[in-house]
Amino acid sequence: MKILLVDPFHGAAGDMIIGSLLDLGAGEALVRRAMQSVVAEPTFGRVDRAGIWAVRVETHAPVHHRTLEEVLARLDESVAPAPALEMARRVFHRLHRAEASVHGHGAHFHEVGADDAIADIVGACTALWSLGVDGVAVLPIALGRGFAVGSHGTFPIPAPATVAVIRESAVQTMIGTEERELCTPTGAALLAEFATLSAAEIWPASITAVGYGAGKRNPEGTPNVLRTFLLENASPVPHDRVDILETNVDDVTGEVLAYTLSRLMDEGARDASALPLVMKKGRNGYLIRVICRQEMTDHLAGVMARELGTLGIRCLPSVHRLTIERTVQPVTVTIRGRTYTIDVKCGWFAGKVSSFKAEFEQARLCARELDVPLREVTGIVEDAAREIFRERGVLDE
């Protein structure tokens, strides 16, 4: 498998991401054509950043702020590959949600809706698509400190939109000491969308390529670059290690059991289940089993002890677990004359979608609102998802 590892040790911006992926081997002609189709022909060149030779990308875009609808219309004019455009749309929806959470609904995009952001996002998504990787992991993103001036006046760093994007994603951050913006909202949204793996899920692999993308500034003694790696491993399936916690109980009510399983999931368990069994002296009981990350073991064992009153918890440490790559595909459908967008959770194996399922809570709310059976909603959404995957040629049939 081929994995992209992104190392934003000095933050991230759209132009840095494109430059780094180009340096890594992304299709330059394809990226240039995609960016030119939405704004203007970009310039790619090499510059020195504190002794590191990196690719610098300039969009040559005019200053023009757009609404989400205007941005999506501009994307419709692009000649970028369809999967890259679909990813770009998702990135802009992330940015729109972030802007709305900060400024209220109906807000313009301001900096992140400018033409250079459109070019950056289309270019970055096209570059990623051209690399043909099987997964992407993002190391903690460095964030700056202090204050900056934007369309709304002076704002704290990291920018509120950047924080909002990261808050709803799985990427991690670290606060640096530099008194300037290191990660832009565009950079945060791209990396949040790219990430399909956590760094902890990457197995031992070989580095086959390294890329450096240059930022605009060239501070003395600090390499203002974004670094990326291409990793390869022969393993067909990603894997990681987890701990398994178990205990037997025969004196808890169904209500306590249901509450405990729910709380364990809320507290960070990967999975929690109860299996009926016959215990000593013929008593009916349950085997409570919890799967968790190794760093969560002590905390979750404490939850089990307090909620169940058990006096002993078995721990099966460092169990090898194979994991199927998981992504989320938003699917827009019309049901009973109304349009809904519902996420479909997808499992991937060997580059194909091996399983997919409509997100339960979103489907449930839709079914309640329309007063139709839940299975009707999930059936329509999953049929639409099946056609999407079939058209792309990624459905495992």
Report the portion of residues in β strands.
25-35%
Distance between the termini: 21 Å
Number of domains: 3
Helical element count?
Answer: 11
Return the structural class: alpha+beta
- Strand order across the biggest sheet? 4-1-10-9
Number of strands: 17
Largest sheet: 4 strands, mixed
Tell me the Rg in angstroms: 24 Å
- Runs with pLDDT <50, length 5+? none
- Quaternary assembly: single chain
The helix content is: 25-40%
Task: Please trace the helix and strand order, writing H or E for each element.
Answer: EHHEEHHHEEEEHEHEEEHEEHEEEEHH
Broad shape? globular
- Mean pLDDT across the residues is 89
What does this structure look like?
With 397 residues, the protein is α+β, with helices and mostly antiparallel strands. It has three domains: 231 residues, no CATH class; 84 residues, Transcriptional regulatory protein pf0864 domain like (Alpha-Beta Plaits, 2-Layer Sandwich), CATH 3.30.70.1380; 68 residues, Roll (Ubiquitin-like (UB roll)). It is built from eleven helices and 17 strands. Strands 4-1-10-9 form a four-stranded mixed beta sheet. A hairpin with a 2-residue loop joins strand 6 and strand 7. The radius of gyration is 24 Å and the shape is globular. The two termini are 21 Å apart. 37% of the residues are buried. InterPro entries: Ni_insertion. GO terms for molecular function: lyase activity; nickel cation binding. Keywords: Lyase, Nickel.
